[in-house]
Design a protein that fits this description.
By secondary structure, this protein is mostly helical. The protein has three helices and no strands. It has helices spanning about 5-25, 30-45, 50-75. The longest helix is centred in the last third of the chain and has 30 residues, at about 50-75. It starts with a helix and ends in a 5-residue tail after the last helix.
């Protein structure tokens, strides 16, 4: 029975790690910049420098999505501990 608190602590750490990975997002300033640049792109008024910035923000979003998915897949495919 002494191992139960250790297992509980480990499960909590894993759960917190998963929650942290899933909850990561762009900062509010980055979200505002992305929306502004995206709107400028749709209107056709994006400068080359703004286009580079939009690409960097898009890459950051894709990386966050990939991290979210990887964390979810890892948690769903992890064998249940007994």
């Amino acid at each position: 029975m002494k191992s139960l608190p250790l297992k509980v602590a480990q499960a909590l750490r894993e759960s917190n790690s998963l929650s942290t990975a899933i909850s990561k997002t762009l900062s509010p300033n980055q979200r505002v910049a992305y929306c502004r640049l995206f709107a400028k792109r749709k209107s056709g008024s994006l400068t080359p420098a703004e286009h580079r910035k939009l690409l960097k923000l898009s890459d950051a979003i894709e990386l966050l999505h990939a991290t979210h998915l990887q964390s979810l897949i890892t948690s769903l495919t992890r064998p249940e501990k007994k």
